[in-house]
Prior knowledge:
- This protein has helices at about 30-35, 60-65, 75-80, 130-135, 140-160, 165-170, 180-200, 225-240, 330-350, 385-400, 400-420, 435-440, 445; strands spanning about 20-25, 40-50, 50-55, 75, 85-90, 95, 100-105, 110, 115, 120-125, 135, 175, 210-215, 240-245, 250, 255-260, 260-265, 270, 275-280, 295, 310, 315, 365-370, 370-375, 380-385.
- By secondary structure, the protein is of the alpha/beta class.
- α1 runs parallel beside α9 (about 330-350), α5 (about 140-160) packs antiparallel against α6 and α7 runs parallel beside α8.
Amino acid sequence: MLTIQELTPIPNIPESKFKRIVIVGAGFAGIQLAQKLAKSDYQVILLDKNNYHQFQPLLYQVATAALSPSAVSFPLRRLFHKTENIVFRMAIVRKIDKEKKILETNLGHLNYDILVLSQGANTNFFGNKNIQTHAAPMKSTSEALYIRNKIISNYERAVNLKSVEDRRPIMNVVIVGGGATGVELAGAIAELRNHVFPKDYPQLSFENMRVILIEAGPSLLSGLSEGSRAKAKSYLGKLGVEVMLGTMVEDYDGLVVKLKDKEPIETITLLWAAGIKANSLLGIDSEQVAKNGRLIVDEFNRLINEDSIYVVGDQCEQKEEKYPHGHPQVAQVAIQQASNLAKNLKLDLQNKPWKPFQYRDLGSMATVGKKMAVVDLPFISFQGTFAWLVWLFVHLMAILGVKNKLLIFISWAWKYLAFDPSLRLLIRPKYVKPNKREWLLDQDDLE
Ligand SMILES: Cc1cc2nc3c(=O)[nH]c(=O)nc-3n(C[C@H](O)[C@H](O)[C@H](O)COP(=O)(O)OP(=O)(O)OC[C@H]3O[C@@H](n4cnc5c(N)ncnc54)[C@H](O)[C@@H]3O)c2cc1C
């Protein structure tokens, strides 16, 4: 096996008189940091395994045919058209040599003066290989698209089966994880069942389709206020979602979901939104990794025991008095940490002292279905139609790009007025020849 030094450098990276900052990951934290460092006296090399940024909060709408994948994904190169000091490369980062300050990627190696890791997190199956094999996670646009295809193909299949008993496992959908993702997915799938599928498949009886949301803890949306948690549960009830609290999934073989101390459920569609684990790369010392897999950083987001490596967003664990176990893994933390680090890196150029990070919680929200959402702001919490409008507005404003905002606005207006999302297309991936896979398959499928 080649060592990092034996690999060739990534070609065509421009020479620069400035210090080089390499950012790994163009998620919420990575692009915020790169944008804040635009036109600064640093050379910034941004690496991501995809050539687009993914807006994860709206992935469930891709999975449920309400939005197209391109509405929630933004081309990274377009973001940096006018910023000469920022170079983007689509690359998978694998390993780091901290002593020599070199990164190993699938394209070759890359030197850095300062390294910022913002690789986010991936799905946590808690070591259960069967669940990992058979359940569908939803952390990326391609996984959301897979879920859309899976759900639609289920009904195209069910409509050809004579027996109701045979159809049942194909029609049922089970979602595991009662956080915002699970709640939003369950609500959206129930709305499809209640309003859309019966029109598309009049030969199927949708009373036979169960939408079940399973949560191991005692309530849904555990980080939200009691009022919001109760309201979300009652909204799901109105939509006909069966909510099972205090329920542990023990195993899944692709057909039967085994539950601890409860009756098993038959489904070929288990959507897994039950946990995440931080991404990492080879070359990090074990004492720099917390028990939960997050990389431990100080109040400046500096990786412990290092002076030129920083970690921001979901990948890091940073303790504050109010957050003794680290901050919640949400977009606002990632964005705020990246902004603070950008300010500090600029202060460094002026030899000024750095400012420690302090998280400002702006609130949390989740939507359950049309006109049903819950919003907790720092001083007030509200639910219902107004909360739903606030949710729509906040998400519309947060998405990158005017075209994407317009696309989403039009898709939502159409969906909510006509209750007929128009994206129920089953576009199946074509077989990719082995020698073309590296460039054409989702990188995670190659690992
Ligand atoms: C379905 C879903 C819904 C969510 N809803 C909400 C919500 O409503 N509100 C909220 O605040 N938060 C929400 N979150 C959480 C939020 O999306 C994350 O907290 C946020 O994305 C973290 O930002 P990040 O920059 O740390 O990581 P990410 O945004 O995950 O970005 C990480 C980037 O690193 C890249 N990467 C990873 N490994 C490598 C590698 N080895 N080489 C190259 N590139 C790599 C990835 O491709 C990715 O682009 C949701 C998450 C999911 C999955």
